[in-house]
Design a protein that fits this description.
Oligomer: heterodimer
Low-confidence stretches of chain A: none
Helix content of chain B: under 10%
Largest interface: A-B, 25 and 23 residues
Number of strands of chain B: 11
Largest sheet of chain A: 7 strands, mixed
Strand content of chain A: over 45%
Shape of chain A: globular
Number of strands of chain A: 11
């Protein structure tokens, strides 16, 4: 099993640019989670999907953030426009509905200049 | 706000010693999990303990849960340099309808095991 795949692994962009982060969950997993990790705030849940449907997006910081899951094997997290305070490591995790353990991807390290 | 809070924030020990990390939480939980994060990597699940369990073992790991005190501890015995990582506790709220639910993570304990 390849595990959760995220791309890109590193992204450097300038303020105001659009950023798209991608995630492929583990095959067969039907829950997907997007997290953001910073030194100041730790690991924060942004949004999660069950069976491709967004269940809870209360952690999405503001309208500049959006997430989609068009099918069971792909999800995107988009930031438009990006700001320096969005700099963080963004993790995607997946799990099976009914199972508590989450499997994390390697993360995307985003730097907004 | 963070549900789980680890203590200490950082811990430095010698190889072969035991390491104990604590986690406190605020509201009722269904289970508590511990994850490890090596520098620059994603989190890896270590062990899960349910609210009706008091102690659980997995290899060199021992987890306890005291729901009356809303606290948990993770003990790593006979530590190795490879155990150097950040350790996070994560709590899951009481289950609802069997669907997945979100985990709330603490800020972690940075463990350094010196060779």
């Amino acid at each position: 099993d390849a595990g959760v795949i995220q791309s890109p692994r590193h992204e450097v962009t300038e303020m105001g640019q659009e950023v798209t982060l991608r995630c492929k969950p583990i095959s067969g997993h039907n829950s997907l989670f997007w997290y953001r990790q910073t030194m100041m705030r730790g690991l924060e849940l942004l949004i999660y999907f069950n069976n491709n449907v967004p269940i809870d997006d209360s952690g999405m910081p503001e309208d500049r953030f959006s997430a989609k899951m068009p099918n069971a094997s792909f999800s995107t997290l988009k930031i438009q426009p990006s700001e320096p305070r969005d700099s963080a490591v963004y993790f995607c995790a997946s799990s099976l509905v009914g199972r508590e353990t989450q499997y994390f991807g390697p993360g995307t390290r985003l730097l907004v200049l | 706000s963070q549900q789980g809070e680890e203590d200490p924030q950082a811990l430095s020990i010698q190889e072969g010693e035991n390491a104990t990390m604590n986690c406190s939480y605020k509201t009722s939980i269904n289970n508590l999990q511990w994850y490890r994060q090596n520098s620059g990597r994603g989190l890896v699940h270590l062990i899960l303990i349910r609210s009706n369990e008091r102690e659980k073992h997995s290899g060199r790991l021992r987890v306890t849960l005291d729901t009356s005190k809303k606290s948990s501890s993770l003990l790593i015995t006979a530590s190795r340099a490879a155990d150097t990582a950040s350790y996070f506790c994560a709590t899951g709220p009481p289950n609802s309808g069997g669907s997945n639910y979100k985990l709330t993570f603490g800020k972690g304990t940075l463990l350094t095991v010196n060779p």
